[in-house]
């Protein structure tokens, strides 16, 4: 019997992604986003982030700091959209770096 193959890039229950500028992202929620209108809960550990936001196309939703570098919030998702998780590390409050991108 052969072992089941995991999706390429799968790192376990709490996937960690490469280093981004000053921090390492630990992305907890969501692991998948349905391609349908609705609300999706986001939860990510973003060390040294001053502000964290999710964009759905051009609509920004700021996540709330729940402590210990954990950022979370509910975001309205629109079918067939581009969703990004973004961080501001301080300094210019209008500049954000994209950490993750979903294309629905």
Q: What is the residue-mean pLDDT, rounded to a whole number?
A: 79
**What pattern of helices and strands is seen along the backbone?**
EEEEEEEEE
Count of helical regions: 0
Q: Report the C-alpha radius of gyration, rounded.
A: 14 Å
| Largest sheet properties | 5 strands, antiparallel
Low-pLDDT sequence parts: 9-23
Helix content: under 10%
Helix/sheet category: mainly beta
Number of domains: 1
Strand content: over 45%
Termini separation comes to 35 Å
CATH topology: Immunoglobulin-like
CATH level 1 name: Mainly Beta
Shape: globular
Give a count of the beta strands, DSSP E runs of length 2 or more.
9
Strand arrangement within the widest β-sheet reads 1-2-3-7-6
Structure description:
- This protein has 104 residues and is mostly beta strands.
- It has a single domain (16-103), classed as Immunoglobulin-like.
- 0% of the residues lie in helices and 54% in strands.
- It has strands spanning 16-20, 23-29, 38-45, 51-56, 59-62, 64-67, 70-77, 82-88, 97-103.
- The termini are far apart.
Keywords:
104 residues, mainly beta, Immunoglobulin-like, five-stranded antiparallel sheet, four-stranded antiparallel sheet, 9 strands, globular
Task: Give the helices and strands, then pairings.
Blueprint: E1 16-20, E2 23-29, E3 38-45, E4 51-56, E5 59-62, E6 64-67, E7 70-77, E8 82-88, E9 97-103
Give a quick summary of the entry:
With 104 residues, the protein is mainly β. It has a single domain, classed as Immunoglobulin-like (Sandwich), CATH 2.60.40. The chain has no helices and 9 strands.
